[in-house]
Amino acid sequence: MTQTLTRSYDSYETARSVVEALEAGGVSSADISVVGRHAKADDSNAREGAGIGAALGGAAGLLAGIGLIAIPGIGPVVAAGWLAATAAGAAAGGVAGGIVGALTSAGHSEEDANYYAETVRRGGTVVSVRVADEQVPAVEAILDGATPIDRDARLAEYRAAGWNRFDETAAPHRSTVI
Fold first, then answer.
1. CA distance 95 to 136
2. Which of 9, 64, 117, 173 can pair with 14 through a Cys bridge, CB separation 3.0 to 4.6 Å?
3. What is the pTM of this model?
């Protein structure tokens, strides 16, 4: 049986290093996804994503295929993998749900999916991995070893500011992205 493990990070660079560690640890790039904000995404047209993988440090594996997509409520993001393809497909088809729908389809609760989408909207990067049960401890060690965002603390921050769920009709959040 497989499960989906997801963590969010404050910087794209941290997420990039996590993806590289996962691949070095034997996780197939087909089972890894990354979606996040990066200054290059804000400075570029989301249709001009070809070749951005090399510019963002992806010499091989998943990161070599990273590109730019636009996600409703988030704006342009750097993304690669099955999660990105699902979110982009929903956006292109005008299907409601986008990134939240992709995350819930992958097995996350609606609350978690909204948290991850909002974290990307505010400048973070999400790494999501599909793993067999026997791989969970090793993959969690890699994901958690890079000091992901403390979900509960960040949710408390968001809620204290009046947030209650990701709104894909909202304007993209303009924060400092790395």
1. 32
2. 9
3. 0.80
Residues near 175 by beta carbon (within 8 Å), at least 6 away in sequence = 37, 122, 123
- The tokens for 129 are 């991995």
pLDDT of residue 91: 47
The 3-class secondary structure across the chain, one letter per residue, is: CEEEEEEEECCHHHHHHHHHHHHHCCCCHHHEEEEECCHHHHHCCCCCCCCHHHHCCCCCHHHHHCEEEEECCCEEEEEECHHHHHHHHHHHCCCCCHHHHHHHHCCCCHHHHHHHHHHHHCCCEEEEEEEEHHHHHHHHHHHHHCCCCCHHHHHHHHHHCCCCCCCCCCCCCCCCCC
The string of pLDDT tens digits covering residues 158-177 is: 999 999 998 877 766 665 44
**Cα 145 to Cα 81, 137, 166, 174, 176, distances in angstroms:** 22, 12, 27, 28, 24
Tens-digit pLDDT profile for residues 1-35: 899 999 999 999 999 999 999 999 999 999 999 99
Termini Cα distance of the chain: 36
